[in-house]
Amino acid sequence: MADYPRGLSAFSLEGKRALVTGGNRGLGYAFARALADSGATVAFVGRGAEANEAAVRRLKAEGIDAYGIGADLTADDEADRAVDQAAERLGGLDIVVNNAGVCFHNPAWDATDDEWQQVFDLNVRAVWKVSLAAGRHLRDNGGGAIVNIGSISGLIVNRPQAQAPYNASKAAVHQLTKSLAAEWAPHHIRVNAVAPGYVKTEMAPVDRPEYRRMWIEDAPQQRYATPEEIAPSIVYLCSPAAAFVTGSVLVIDGGYTVY
Ligand code: NDP
């Protein structure tokens, strides 16, 4: 173990090349910034050209040169193109964070086929397509790390809002994570998931009074998280410090799922 990195150097991502999906806002933005702050060069994907440019500018103002890629990951060819563009721009890939996701609140009786399709196309199929396309780069480079963003919704059923397709999609993310971890361990590719609780972003209206009782007061820590509080766990899972961690689902929820 003489060459094992000691202390905080075990968490360094110096020289690593990372792709984050859904990196122009919310959790993905915080992940892109944290990976860059830890030494990685970073590319991110989002659909909105303006949102991507704004995120590149914001990161630049924080001393980070990131590369924004415009792509709708629910289109298979765009997912492939985005991965290849990132690999070409960064000179290869070592890290992939499958973060882009979508959620609709609707009782099952009222959920439309289109909502189901959008949720599964992005939350599950895009994770699959990006992982396969990027996994080939990782394999050819001798290994790497993939982190998929699951959710406590893959473990429990949220209240009071109904969101059955989303909950099912996040359970699928957790199981896809374990399946790829098993298959790709021989290629030195580690695949893990993070399952956040409630985090303040555009997706989660954590400040709305009607959600306070069950989203906030039901959690042992009695609060929601900021994206910056989830980001260090992504760095950890991508770093040499997590060399023996694969197929894990790391729950980060202020204790929400203990009850
Ligand atoms: P946001 O809605 O704030 O951000 C979603 C990101 O994904 C944006 O950058 C968006 O950019 C991008 N995106 C959306 N659709 C597509 C698409 N078709 N192709 C490419 N990019 C796309 O979400 P959060 O930051 O809250 O969530 C991020 C992840 O974390 C999701 O997987 C979510 O399920 C998960 N999560 C969130 C929790 C929370 O409380 N916020 C809790 C648990 C899990 P653009 O619109 O420009 O494409």
From TrEMBL:
Keywords: Oxidoreductase. SMART domains: PKS_KR. One of its GO terms (molecular function) is oxidoreductase activity. Its EC number is 1.1.1.-. Residues 16-155 form the Ketoreductase domain. Belongs to the short-chain dehydrogenases/reductases (SDR) family. This is SDR family NAD(P)-dependent oxidoreductase.
